Amino acid sequence: MKAKSIRTKIALLLACTSITMILVTQIVSYAVNKKNIVELCESYLYDTCISASDTLYESFYGDSERNDMSVRLEYILYNVGIDTMKSSKAYLVDSEGNYLYHPNDDMIGTKLQGNEVIENVLDRLGQGYITTADVTTCTVDGKEVYIAFMCTVNDWVIFVEADADDVLQPITTITTYTIVAGVAVFIVAIAVAYVIMAKLLKPISSLTKVINDISEFDMSRDYKIPKSKDEIGIMGNAVIKMKENLTTIVSELDNISEKLVADANVMYEISEQISSASTDNSATNEELAASMEETSASTESVNGNIKNMNGNVAAVADKIKEGNNLTTDVRGKTDIINKKTREASEATIKVYDSIKETSNEAIEKAKEIEKINGMVTAIQEIAEQTSLLSLNASIEAARAGEQGKGFAVVASEIGKLAAETNDTSAGISKIVVEVNNSVDTLTQCLKEMLNFLETKVMNDYSDFIDASEEYNVAAQSIEDFMGLANEEVVQLREGIEHITEMMEGISRNVGEASIGVMDIAEKTTNVVEQTAESFERTSNCKESAEKLREITSRFKL
Q1: pLDDT tens for residues 90-125?
Q2: Which long-range contacts (CB under 8 A, 24 or more apart) does 317-325 make?
């Protein structure tokens, strides 16, 4: 759809204004003219009615015979009315409402019907009241009429009617003439306005071309704007100045966009490298944290097994003390062994069975310490893996440069912790060897004691009665053996307690290292997130720079 020119718009505005003024003028004129004409018509009808009534008084007052009344009434009332209105006629009725005069001779003598105003006047007249002369409107035979009435001589009522259409006919004529004149004035005004606007708006065409070139980003052409001191000239100079300023700005933006695109590409590559390195560091930290958690779990498991072994050794110590007490009782009761051989034999069998069962349980439980070797091996493997992870972390920190210095320090500390863990596991291994030797000695002693009870005491129990002195010596040997065994058990418990303390220290160190690694992993994750955000913003900056460059390339300089 073709856009309307300013000339056409102004013409349309003038047309709308003229039409509005004409309509307002017509409405105001119609209202004023209607009021004046209606008032004038009512005045004419009223005066006509009064004049006719006066004539009737002069002709019929005191005339009781009323000779030739119809002729006289015809003479008086025939021409009563407004000359310019064909519907303006006079009527005369008596007090009963019968027509005494009517323009239509056939209606004379008939009764008035359908005229509410005159019927009300007759009703009041029948009640003895005379209605004051007046002019009003009513509807007669479906038409609106203006009616002037008056009570006159002989209680007659004279009234003069005129159709409302006839009354308002002058208004219609005036309105028609006014509309024709308004249309003529409107046409002339539009023609004059169009010519004037064509002359005034001619400089705007050149200005429009400049603005169109600017809207299409074409700054290459020059135009001459007509010089004038009016608003159009000022606007033209402002547009030319705006074009020059816009050309300068676009040139500067083009240079800036080229630099911005180059810098954005460099930042994009750097951000991509940092993001990749941060992602690798985050993965390494997660692996290291997982290894620390496994080491902590293994250490806790070893610590639990050692505590269980300590309980088993305590049980063996209790049994050894119990055996030592029994041996002391045997020595104290050597003199009465002969009298209670059967009782002693049964007691010895019970002691033998108890010691054998307890010794077997203690020997089996003592074998649990062999599991420590496997745990020590696992700790050494974890320490080696931790050392390897520390080495990898140091390498990644070296790649990260300045940003990886803090991570390199943590990696170095983790490497030291791995070395300490390896040394500690070696110490544990050495202690375990000593504990194994002690357990082997204890086991050998228990086996020799059981073999002694089985081969010497049980089989030769009959000779035991005759060799009470020898048995006392053997009991002393057993007591000494029990003392040695007790000392070995005490040393074993001390070694186990030392191992327990070392394992707890390892567990604490591994826990602290795990917390540190988790903290590093969390911080590395934050660095990765921030690097990702920085990478995203750099990408947005790059896209914005390229878009800016694309926008500036649209301008033709």
Answers
A1: 999 999 999 999 988 899 999 998 899 999 999 999
A2: 317/486, 317/489, 317/490, 317/493, 319/354, 319/355, 319/358, 319/359, 319/362, 320/482, 320/485, 320/486, 320/489, 321/482, 321/486, 323/351, 323/355, 323/478, 323/482, 324/479, 324/482, 324/483, 324/486
